[in-house]
C-alpha cells in the first residue's frame, strides 16, 4: 500500500495544484471530444438518408396496449425488437433492443417511479408499406413505415414528431470478437450447417429463405461477415488509460425530427444558454457526469450531472423527448433555420418561403437499449405533469432549507463555527445552516470528526440547535482504504465495493488518498450506507445535522477524465452502462438514511453535485465549482433554468463564486441573484480570502444584510412554490415562455426568470451597470415594481435604472403573495409570526393567491396535516377560502396586514371573521403609488374571513 501511495503522490499533488491555483482554468485536454470518443466518432460518421433498417410487418403483434415487431438491418441481417406503447397522459414509449442478444443489455432501473400505465391502441390501416395506429387522443395517430423503418406521430394533418426520418437509427449488436478462436470455430460450424440446411430445405420449400428470415437464429451466427472492426470498437485508449471493452461495440443511436420547432431546451448540465444551440459545426452536447472544476462557459462539454430530457416549444405546442439511458451520451442538434439572420428570416417571409422550421435531435449512447418517451404536451403544464409521472416530482424540503446557507472549505474548528455563528447575530443577518467541508473529518474518514478541531460535535450542534439553526456536514461517496476504518472494513467484508475488470476491488485516488468506491448500484450497499446515518453509528450527529454529497460523479483523481474507468464492474454490469446513475444512487441512499434515522418522520435535506433524471426526488443540486467572475454569475441563471425545465427545481449556484475572490460589487450582485434562486448558499474555496457577509465594509454589510433579510420575508411564498412543485412537477424558477407560450419574444430569454407565475426577477449581471432592460411579458398584463410599487404594462422592454442596492423584481398584477415581515435569526424562529398579504391588482381589479402552512419539516403533510387556502380579491372583497376540506392543522400565525397595490382609496374597510362578527379596520392610502395598507385584521391565517372595501 505504501508503494501505491508513493506512486500516486505526484498525481495528487498535480491535481491539487490545478485546484488551488487561481489563474488556471479547466484543462480541456483532460476530457474527450467526440472525435476522441470512438463510439461517438463512429456513429457521427453515419450518412443521413441511408438507413439499413426496415420493419418486418409480418412479425407485428398488437394487443390493446402494446405493439411489437421486428426490425432487420439489411446490411448485417441482425434483428431488433421494436416495442411501442401508448401511455396514460398523452405519452408514447418506444423501446428497441436486440431480438436475441448474446447476453442481456442494460435497462435503467429505479429512475421511473413506477411502470407507466398503458392505454389502448387500435389498428386503423395496414398495407405492405406500413401500418397506421390510433393513439386515442383526438386525431393523434402513429404511422409506421416499413422501408426504411420510420415512425411519424401525427395530429390531424400535422406531423408532431418523426423518428428515424433522417435514417440515423443505429444499434451495434453484441457479438463475439472475430479474432478469437471460439468465434472462428462457431462461425465456421454455423456457416457449414446453414449451407446444409439451405440445400435440403430449398429442395423441399422454395420459400425457405423467406421463412429463415422470419425465424432468425442466434444474432452472432446470422450477422454477416462483411462487418469490419474499426479502431476503438474492442479496446480504446485515452491518454494513458485503456478501456478494455469486453463486450465490444454496443452503441445505439436514433434521430428525432421536430417540424415547426426552432427552440429546444434541457439536457443539463452544461454551462450554456438555456436555449440549446445547433452542433453541426462542433461537438455534440455531452452527457457524462464528471468532476470539471473551473468549467468552460458556453460549451457543450459535460459537467457534473445529466438529465436526458429535451423540451421543444413553439407557439402551438410544447413537447419533449426523454431518453432513458445512463451510459455516456452525446446529443446532436441541427436546424434548417440555423445561421439565418433576422433579415434572412424576414426575407423568407416577404418572399413567401414555405420552408417550415425544423429541429432535428440525435441521441447517441455508448451502451444499453433505446428507451425513449415522447411527451406530447400540448401545454408546458401538461409536459411537466407527463415527465413527473415518469420520474417523480421535486422532494418537498423542510422550510429551513429555503433560508440562507453559509459555507466554506473549510471552517477551521468548533471555535470558528461558533465565531461565525455569533457574527451573524452581531450583524443582525439571519441564516439557517452553517456548513463543514472535508477538513472536519478525521483524516478524510467520512462519518467522523477531527478529534482535535471538532472534539465535541454534539456540543457544537446543540449550540446551533439552541438558536434554531442547523449544520450540514459533507459525506462523500469514496472510502479511505484503511483496515482500522470501520466503514471500509464492513464494505470490504460484505464485498460491496465496485470491482475492476479482473474481479478485484477497484481502487482510485481521491481526498483520502487510496480510495474504494462503494457499489451504490447494489441495493445492499445503499442499505448499508443509509444505516450509517443512524445516531449510534454516525457518532456525534444530531437531528439538526444534514448532509452534502460531493464528488459523486464519481470523482477519481487518477481516473480517465477524472472519473471511473468504464470497464469497472457493478455486479454483472460494466460501469459504462451505469455511469450517469452513480450520483443519483448516492443521493438516494443518503436521503433514505436521514429519513430512517428519524423513524420516517422528518424530511431530509441532502445536497448533491452529480445527478440524473429522478434526482429531484432526493434533494437539492448546485452548479458546482464556479469562479468569482461576472460571466459565471450570468451563466448560473440559464444553468438553473435548464435544470428546472428537467424536473430539478431545487437549484442554486455558489454565491460569490467558489474559486478566486470576488470584488465587492460582484459579491453583492451575486447575493442579489442568489436570493431569488431556490437554493441560496454562499461558498468559497479554502484558498480564497474569508468572505462572511460582514467582511467587506459597512456599506456592503448593510447591502448584504438587506438582501438576506428580504429572502426571509419571502419564505412563505418560496415554501408554497415548493409544495406546488412537489404536487405537480412544475418548476419553481421558470423561463418566461412557460406562462406566455405564444409570446415569441420570451423564447430565448434566460437573463431573467419567473418564480412561480407571480414574481419576475431580472438580476444585474454586468459590472458597473447603471441600468438594465427587462422584458415584461403579457400584453394584457400589468407588473408592479416590488420596491417602488410603480405600475408597468406587459408586452414591452422596460428600461430600468439601477444602483448597487437594487435588483429589478416585479409582482404580476392579479396575484397575491404572502410574506412574513418580522425577520428573525432563522426561519424556525419565524414559524408562528404573522403574515402580510401583498395584493397586486390586475387590469380587472382582481387578484388571487394561496397560503400553505404545515409544521415545516415532517412528512405529516402526507397525512393531511396542513392548511391550504385560496386568497382572492374581486368586487372590492378579499376573502380566504379553504382549499383542503379534508386536511387538518392549526397555526398560531395570523394576518397582520393586507397591502393592496394599484388600489383606489376606500371610504371604509370592514372585516367579517369566521364567527360572523364584523369590525371596522384601520387603513392608510398613499395616492402617489396607489397603495392601500389595511392594518391588523388579526384573523387566524387558517380561518375563513372576508375584508370588504367600500
TrEMBL record:
Coiled-coil boundaries: none
Database matches in SUPFAM superfamilies: (Trans)glycosidases, Galactose mutarotase-like, Glycosyl hydrolase domain
Protein localization: Endoplasmic reticulum; Golgi apparatus
Keyword field contains Endoplasmic reticulum: yes
Residue ranges of domain Glycosyl hydrolase family 31 C-terminal in the record: 729-817
InterPro entries (UniProt xref): Gal_mutarotase_sf_dom, GH, Glyco_hydro_31_C, Glyco_hydro_31_N_dom, Glyco_hydro_31_TIM, Glyco_hydro_b
EC number: 3.2.1.207
Signal peptide range: 1-25
Catalysed reactions, as listed in the record: N(4)-(alpha-D-Glc-(1->3)-alpha-D-Man-(1->2)-alpha-D-Man-(1->2)-alpha-D-Man-(1->3)-[alpha-D-Man-(1->2)-alpha-D-Man-(1->3)-[alpha-D-Man-(1->2)-alpha-D-Man-(1->6)]-alpha-D-Man-(1->6)]-beta-D-Man-(1->4)-beta-D-GlcNAc-(1->4)-beta-D-GlcNAc)-L-asparaginyl-[protein] + H2O = N(4)-(alpha-D-Man-(1->2)-alpha-D-Man-(1->2)-alpha-D-Man-(1->3)-[alpha-D-Man-(1->2)-alpha-D-Man-(1->3)-[alpha-D-Man-(1->2)-alpha-D-Man-(1->6)]-alpha-D-Man-(1->6)]-beta-D-Man-(1->4)-beta-D-GlcNAc-(1->4)-beta-D-GlcNAc)-L-asparaginyl-[protein] (N-glucan mannose isomer 9A1,2,3B1,2,3) + beta-D-glucose; N(4)-(alpha-D-Glc-(1->3)-alpha-D-Glc-(1->3)-alpha-D-Man-(1->2)-alpha-D-Man-(1->2)-alpha-D-Man-(1->3)-[alpha-D-Man-(1->2)-alpha-D-Man-(1->3)-[alpha-D-Man-(1->2)-alpha-D-Man-(1->6)]-alpha-D-Man-(1->6)]-beta-D-Man-(1->4)-beta-D-GlcNAc-(1->4)-beta-D-GlcNAc)-L-asparaginyl-[protein] + H2O = N(4)-(alpha-D-Glc-(1->3)-alpha-D-Man-(1->2)-alpha-D-Man-(1->2)-alpha-D-Man-(1->3)-[alpha-D-Man-(1->2)-alpha-D-Man-(1->3)-[alpha-D-Man-(1->2)-alpha-D-Man-(1->6)]-alpha-D-Man-(1->6)]-beta-D-Man-(1->4)-beta-D-GlcNAc-(1->4)-beta-D-GlcNAc)-L-asparaginyl-[protein] + beta-D-glucose
Assigned keywords, A-Z: Endoplasmic reticulum, Glycoprotein, Glycosidase, Golgi apparatus, Hydrolase, Signal
GO biological process: carbohydrate metabolic process; N-glycan processing
Region (Disordered): 203-232
Domain of life, per lineage: Eukaryota
Main location per the UniProt record: endoplasmic reticulum
CDD domains linked: GH31_GANC_GANAB_alpha, GH31_N
GO CC terms, sorted: glucosidase II complex; Golgi apparatus
Gene3D superfamilies associated with the record: Glycosidases (3.20.20.80), glycosyl hydrolase (family 31) (2.60.40.1760), Golgi alpha-mannosidase II (2.60.40.1180)
Domain Glycoside hydrolase family 31 TIM barrel: 395-720
Keyword Endoplasmic reticulum: yes
Residues in Glycoside hydrolase family 31 N-terminal domain copies: 83-332
GO molecular-function term, one example from the UniProt record: Glc2Man9GlcNAc2 oligosaccharide glucosidase activity
Pathway(s) served: Glycan metabolism; N-glycan metabolism
Family recorded in the similarity comment: Belongs to the glycosyl hydrolase 31 family.
Name this protein carries in UniProt: Neutral alpha-glucosidase AB
Protein's organism: Takifugu bimaculatus
Amino acid at each position: 500500500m505504501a508503494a501505491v501511495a508513493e506512486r500516486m503522490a505526484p498525481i495528487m499533488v498535480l491535481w491539487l495544484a490545478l485546484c488551488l491555483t487561481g489563474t488556471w482554468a479547466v484543462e480541456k485536454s483532460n476530457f474527450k471530444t467526440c472525435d476522441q470518443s470512438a463510439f461517438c466518432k463512429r456513429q457521427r460518421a453515419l450518412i443521413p438518408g441511408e438507413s439499413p433498417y426496415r420493419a418486418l410487418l409480418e412479425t407485428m403483434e398488437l394487443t390493446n396496449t402494446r405493439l411489437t415487431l421486428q426490425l432487420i438491418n439489411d446490411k448485417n441481417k441482425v434483428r431488433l425488437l421494436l416495442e411501442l406503447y401508448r401511455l396514460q397522459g398523452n405519452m408514447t414509449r418506444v423501446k428497441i433492443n436486440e431480438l436475441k442478444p448474446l447476453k442481456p443489455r442494460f435497462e435503467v432501473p429505479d429512475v421511473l417511479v413506477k411502470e407507466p400505465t398503458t392505454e389502448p391502441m387500435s389498428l386503423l390501416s395496414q398495407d405492405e408499406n406500413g401500418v397506421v395506429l390510433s393513439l386515442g387522443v383526438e386525431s393523434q395517430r402513429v404511422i409506421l413505415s416499413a422501408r426504411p423503418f420510420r415512425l411519424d406521430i401525427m395530429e390531424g394533418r400535422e406531423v408532431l414528431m418523426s423518428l428515424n426520418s433522417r435514417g440515423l437509427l443505429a444499434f451495434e449488436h453484441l457479438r463475439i470478437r472475430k479474432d478469437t478462436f471460439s468465434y472462428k470455430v462457431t462461425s465456421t460450424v454455423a456457416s457449414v450447417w446453414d449451407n446444409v440446411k439451405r440445400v435440403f430445405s430449398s429442395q423441399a420449400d422454395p420459400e425457405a429463405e423467406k421463412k429463415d428470415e422470419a425465424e432468425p437464429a442466434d444474432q452472432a451466427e446470422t450477422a454477416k461477415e462483411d462487418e469490419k472492426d474499426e479502431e476503438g470498437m474492442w479496446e480504446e485508449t485515452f491518454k494513458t488509460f485503456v478501456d478494455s471493452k469486453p463486450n465490444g461495440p454496443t452503441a445505439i443511436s436514433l434521430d428525432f425530427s421536430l417540424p415547426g420547432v426552432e427552440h429546444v431546451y434541457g439536457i443539463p448540465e452544461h454551462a450554456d444558454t438555456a436555449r440549446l444551440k445547433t452542433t453541426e459545426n462542433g461537438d455534440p452536447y455531452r452527457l457524462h457526469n464528471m468532476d470539471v472544476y473551473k468549467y468552460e462557459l458556453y460549451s457543450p462539454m459535460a459537467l457534473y450531472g445529466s438529465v436526458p430530457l429535451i423540451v421543444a416549444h413553439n407557439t402551438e405546442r410544447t413537447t419533449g423527448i426523454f431518453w432513458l439511458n445512463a451510459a455516456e451520451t452525446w446529443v446532436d442538434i441541427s436546424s434548417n433555420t440555423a445561421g439565418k439572420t433576422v433579415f434572412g428570416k424576414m426575407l423568407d417571409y416577404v418572399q413567401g418561403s414555405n420552408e417550415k422550421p425544423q429541429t432535428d435531435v440525435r441521441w447517441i449512447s455508448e451502451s444499453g437499449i433505446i428507451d425513449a418517451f415522447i411527451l406530447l404536451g400540448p401545454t408546458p403544464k401538461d409536459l411537466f405533469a407527463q415527465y413527473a409521472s415518469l420520474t417523480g416530482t421535486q422532494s418537498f424540503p423542510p422550510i429551513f432549507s429555503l433560508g440562507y446557507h453559509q459555507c466554506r472549505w473549510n471552517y477551521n474548528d468548533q471555535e470558528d463555527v461558533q465565531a461565525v455563528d455569533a457574527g451573524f447575530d452581531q450583524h443582525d443577518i439571519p441564516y439557517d445552516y452553517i456548513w463543514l467541508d472535508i477538513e472536519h473529518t478525521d483524516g478524510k474518514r467520512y462519518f467522523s470528526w477531527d478529534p482535535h478541531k471538532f472534539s465535541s460535535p454534539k456540543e457544537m450542534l446543540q449550540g446551533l440547535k439552541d438558536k434554531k439553526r442547523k449544520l450540514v456536514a459533507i459525506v462523500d461517496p469514496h472510502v479511505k482504504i484503511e483496515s482500522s476504518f470501520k466503514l471500509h472494513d464492513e464494505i470490504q467484508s460484505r464485498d460491496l465495493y465496485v470491482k475492476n475488470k479482473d474481479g478485484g476491488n477497484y481502487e482510485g485516488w481521491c481526498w483520502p488518498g487510496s480510495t474504494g468506491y462503494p457499489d451504490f448500484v447494489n441495493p445492499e450497499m445503499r442499505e448499508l450506507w443509509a444505516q450509517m446515518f443512524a445516531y449510534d453509528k454516525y457518532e456525534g450527529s444530531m437531528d439538526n445535522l444534514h448532509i452534502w454529497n460531493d464528488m459523486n460523479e464519481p470523482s477519481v483523481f487518477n481516473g480517465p477524465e477524472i472519473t471511473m474507468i468504464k470497464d469497472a464492474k457493478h455486479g454483472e454490469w460494466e460501469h459504462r452502462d451505469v455511469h450517469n446513475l452513480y450520483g443519483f444512487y448516492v443521493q438516494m441512499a443518503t436521503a433514505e438514511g436521514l429519513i430512517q434515522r428519524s423513524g420516517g418522520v422528518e424530511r431530509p435535506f441532502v445536497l448533491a453535485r452529480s445527478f440524473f433524471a429522478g434526482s429531484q426526488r432526493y434533494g437539492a443540486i448546485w452548479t458546482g465549482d464556479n469562479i468569482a467572475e461576472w460571466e459565471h454569475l450570468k451563466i448560473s441563471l440559464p444553468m438553473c433554468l435548464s435544470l428546472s425545465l428537467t424536473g430539478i427545481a431545487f437549484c442554486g449556484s455558489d454565491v460569490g463564486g467558489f474559486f478566486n475572490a470576488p470584488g465587492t460589487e460582484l459579491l453583492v450582485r451575486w447575493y442579489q441573484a442568489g436570493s431569488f434562486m431556490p437554493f441560496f448558499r454562499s461558498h468559497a474555496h479554502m484558498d480564497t480570502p474569508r468572505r462572511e457577509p460582514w467582511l467587506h465594509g459597512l456599506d456592503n454589510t448593510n447591502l448584504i444584510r438587506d438582501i438576506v433579510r428580504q429572502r426571509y420575508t419571502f419564505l412563505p411564498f418560496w415554501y408554497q412554490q415548493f409544495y406546488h412543485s412537489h404536487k405537480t412537477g412544475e418548476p419553481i424558477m421558470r423561463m418566461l415562455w412557460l406562462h406566455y407560450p405564444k409570446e415569441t419574444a420570451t423564447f430565448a430569454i434566460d437573463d431573467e426568470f419567473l418564480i412561480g407565475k407571480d414574481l419576475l426577477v431580472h438580476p444585474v449581471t454586468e459590472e458597473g451597470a447603471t441600468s438594465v432592460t427587462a422584458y415584461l411579458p403579457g400584453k394584457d398584463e400589468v407588473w408592479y415594481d416590488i420596491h417602488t410599487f410603480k405600475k408597468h404594462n406587459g408586452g414591452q422592454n422596460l428600461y430600468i435604472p439601477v444602483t448597487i442596492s437594487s435588483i429589478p423584481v416585479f409582482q404580476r398584477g392579479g396575484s397575491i403573495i404572502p410574506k412574513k415581515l418580522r425577520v428573525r435569526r432563522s426561519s424556525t424562529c419565524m414559524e408562528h409570526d404573522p403574515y402580510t398579504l401583498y395584493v397586486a391588482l390586475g387590469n380587472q381589479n382582481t387578484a388571487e393567491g394561496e397560503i400553505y402552512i404545515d409544521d415545516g419539516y415532517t412528512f405529516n403533510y402526507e397525512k393531511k396535516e396542513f392548511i391550504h387556502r385560496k386568497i382572492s380579491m374581486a368586487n372590492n372583497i378579499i376573502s380566504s377560502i379553504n382549499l383542503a376540506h379534508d386536511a387538518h392543522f392549526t397555526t398560531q400565525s395570523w394576518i397582520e396586514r393586507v397591502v393592496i397595490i394599484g388600489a383606489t382609496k376606500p371610504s371604509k374597510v370592514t372585516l367579517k371573521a369566521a364567527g360572523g362578527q364584523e369590525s371596522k379596520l384601520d387603513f392608510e392610502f398613499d395616492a402617489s403609488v396607489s397603495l392601500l395598507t389595511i392594518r391588523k385584521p388579526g384573523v387566524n391565517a387558517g380561518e375563513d374571513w372576508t375584508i370588504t372595501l367600500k
